[in-house]
Design goal:
Blueprint (H helix, E strand, L loop, with lengths): L1 E3 L2 H10 L8 H5 L2 E5 L4 E3 L7 E7 L1 E7 L5 E8 L2 E3 L1 H6 L6 E4 L3 E7 H8 L3 H27 L2 H12 L6 E3 L4 H8 L3 H13 L3 E4 L2 E4 L2 H5 L10
Antiparallel strand pairs: 1-2, 2-9, 3-8, 4-7, 4-9, 5-6, 5-8, 10-12, 11-12
Length: 229
Amino acid sequence: MKRYKDNLRLSNYLEKFTLREIIDENLELSHEFFQFKKGDLICVLGEKIEHFYILLEGNVKVFTVSADGKILCLRIFDSITNLGDIELFTETRYRCHVEALSDCLCIAFPIDKIKNYGLNNSIFLKYLCIDLCNKFDAISSISSNNILYPLKNRLVGYILEYMNKTSKIAEFPFSYKELSEILGVSYRHLSRCINELEAQGLIKKMGTKIKVLKENEMKSFEFDSYPHK
């Protein structure tokens, strides 16, 4: 992990993501950029929160681990999203692990500066609340779908969500193992389901990519459409 300050780069990102009104001058002065490599843990379950992160580039996996080692993936997040917002409000240690699924870049602010300046800024608070609502809505949808629909239906939903409309090729920004964790099944179960779809002539597996052969037939599967990304 690499950390540094760069006022010009900060200004560019604030403009790019329309964060200028949200991040005031006091927070700008305290900023640092944190660069994480693929596989790095950005947040560790149980550790004290020291920084509030805004993910600018890359994607991350938010997950927890049971006492017997089972992994429950709660969500895959792309930029732009906040990390540490729940802990900020509840004043608790990290409640989940956050792992970089690719090289990631975050703006980091010391948690005491966020408490002193951010939480006293109504625009910043509104920004946090909207992001939290979107997260809870997405996680609720994922949990509901994992309970209500068979694996094959949920898998079809993901394939169609990530499918390029022109090439008809779906490419996930995470591994099949991570997809199995999101879907709440074993990797073996997921592989068997992919093979079944391929045997039915609906898809063709191409390494890490999936070619959709019969889009209309796949759309006939029952599944709730919700934003996976």
